[in-house]
Amino acid sequence: MQILRTIEELQNIRKTISTNVGFVPTMGALHDGHISLIKKARTENEIVIVSIFVNPTQFLPGEDLDAYPRKDEADKKICELCKVDYLFMPEISTMYSKEEVLIKAPNKSYILEGLARPGHFDGVLQVVLKLFGITQPTNAYFGKKDAQQLSLILQMVKNLFLPINIIPCEIVREKDGLALSSRNIYLSSEQRKDALLISKSLYSAGALIAKGELNATIVKNKILEIMRPLEIEYVAIVDREFNEIDTIELKNTIILVVARFEKTRLLDNIWI
Ligand code: PAF
Q1: Of 84, 109, 178, 199, which sits 20 to 30 A from 261 (CA to CA)?
Q2: Which of 10, 24, 26, 34 is catalytic?
Q3: Range list of β-strands (E), the chain
Q4: Domains of the chain listed by start with CATH number
């Protein structure tokens, strides 16, 4: 595995590759969720590139940019074990210049996650577009856990006619159901236990729908009832375009929940 720090190094290597390139963009602190993306990329492409870059433009003032977990040495080992070909780890000054062409995410970036974090998705799309420009992947892998991010990236690729396949990947969970997240390490053991109500509520919603309940309000109330002891930020039932819906449509619905544990926000969802 080669570790690359500059755009020039990666672009020069990229010019010599004429086979499929699978790309997994990350902010590091790799866990089994990232590993599942990398493994999928490994099985589906001749060349695999992973990037680790904690992107400042997607953090709002006062968010956890400085505290965001950084585990470069462990991450390098994980990438090595997963047989990544190239690990791209740029500095902020490598990725950004003083004045930038800005990306404006569409209106649906200002609901749900974007309501709590206005402007967050502008930063996500900006960095993802830069990374796509540098790596020019055939296939790029994103987790379904960040469902709104995934939806906006799909839209960006479509709107900007980028010749890249976006591959949505399943959420990876702990055995007890907690969705993996780099931010789980912020939880106390008590909060970690309480956080299980999130996946429990989604499983119950899934079971209710499997029994034939398609009324979104009834399903939402079930989730709210189970998550009641938590500080709920939102529960939303949307279609794949992120429009709120009244009636659940099979294969076209995502149920999203966010709960807050002091400064830590935990997101989870299920795709129906
Ligand atoms: O999902 C993430 O880890 C980040 O938002 C991404 C896509 C790597 C962009 O910084």
Answers
A1: 109
A2: 34
A3: 2-4, 21-26, 47-52, 86-88, 139-143, 165-169, 231-239, 253-261, 264-271
A4: 2-169 (3.40.50.620), 187-264 (3.30.1300.10)
Residue 235's identity, in one-letter code, is V
Question: Taking the model in full, what pTM does it have?
Answer: 0.95
Residue type, 122: D
Instruction: Please report, in tens digits, the pLDDT of each residue of the chain (272 residues total).
Output: 999 999 999 999 999 999 999 999 999 999 999 999 999 999 999 999 999 999 999 999 999 899 999 999 999 999 999 999 999 999 999 999 999 999 999 999 999 999 989 999 999 999 999 999 999 999 999 999 999 999 999 999 999 999 999 999 999 999 999 999 988 999 999 999 999 999 999 999 999 999 999 999 999 999 999 999 999 999 999 999 999 999 999 999 999 999 999 989 999 999 99
**Residues within a 6 A CB radius of ligand 1:** 25-27, 55, 58, 124, 127-128, 146, 149
CA of 221 to the centre of ligand 1 (A): 31
